Amino acid sequence: MKIIEVRNLRKKYPNHLAVEDVSFEVAEGEIFGILGPNGAGKTTTVECVAGLRKADGGTVRVTGLDPHEDRDELRQVLGMQLQSAALPEKIKVWEALDLYASFYPDPADWTELMERVGLGDKRDTTFKKLSGGQRQRLSVALALIGRPRVAVLDELTTGLDPQARRDTWELVEQIRESGVTIVLVTHFMEEAERLCDRLALIDAGKVVATDTPAGLIAQVGGEQRVRFRPSAPVDDAVLLAVPEVREVRRSGEQVTVSGSGNLAPAVTLALAQHQIVPGDLRIEQATLDDAFLALTGRKLS
Ligand code: ADP
């Protein structure tokens, strides 16, 4: 079932067309990513979905609701992660949770939620004294407190160190496992590739492609490269006879083979048939960055 439908969304600020033409659908239960460089129109898009901004054109439906007309009903189904800086410095973790819970008729048990986001031992800590990662996790808990069916998480891991980022990714996966559909806004390719079931690539206010991460990479060729140093001389012909291989290049002793499909196992097998071992074997695959570059002519980051 489609839980979110966005058709030809358009949003203009006084001097800037932030969203020109954005369409996508989110299925219930998925982690849907909106990936694009800074300024692409991602936040404006999700603010229109959450009813925080009024679109100038197109239609948005969330569980059939119009975010602008049906704001009160929407609040019961959609949780938006607010930028954590919006909280007062002196508010304690438990107070923030208790306050937000009071906004909903049937809130989640905030003690349980506090444990789930790993803030159980920070219950009495003030917002000011939380680390960046702890603040992000608190903002996620606040987005979930109304038991939403959809949670929108915007640039969740920006500014976090690698460990805090990985912890946050795990939290996002747990939230999905609990049955919540997630819309994840990010400009961070690795995050989109790791977490999202499907994603829309957005550039300059338009969707350039929507697919699974692997599908997007495959759309632009899905080329792989395998580099190695053979244990004994190998003829190009041996490698070019492998159906997956398209090209063989050499640099000194190093051989680089490009191609697609199950390239690395196919090459390793062909070498083994000639009693050759590939030393220093490296496999390089195309990434979402490569896909974005191929689709827009620009680098994602
Ligand atoms: P993203 O989330 O992809 O970084 P945004 O949706 O925040 O992009 O912004 C898209 C464009 O709209 C940017 O060029 C930004 O400067 C502009 N913009 C965002 N918010 C406003 C606003 N309140 N008033 C005017 N321009 C804005």
UniProtKB/TrEMBL annotation:
One of its GO terms (biological process) is response to antibiotic. The keyword Iron-sulfur does not apply. InterPro entries: AAA+_ATPase, ABC_transporter-like_ATP-bd, ABC_transporter-like_CS, ABC_transporter_ATP-binding, P-loop_NTPase. Keywords: Antibiotic resistance, ATP-binding, Cell membrane, Membrane, Nucleotide-binding, Translocase, Transport. It holds the Pfam family ABC_tran. One of its GO terms (molecular function) is ATP hydrolysis activity. Residues 4-229 form the ABC transporter domain. It is a peripheral membrane protein. GO terms for cellular component: plasma membrane. SUPFAM superfamilies: P-loop containing nucleoside triphosphate hydrolases. Its main location: membrane. It is found in: Cell membrane. This is ABC transporter ATP-binding protein.
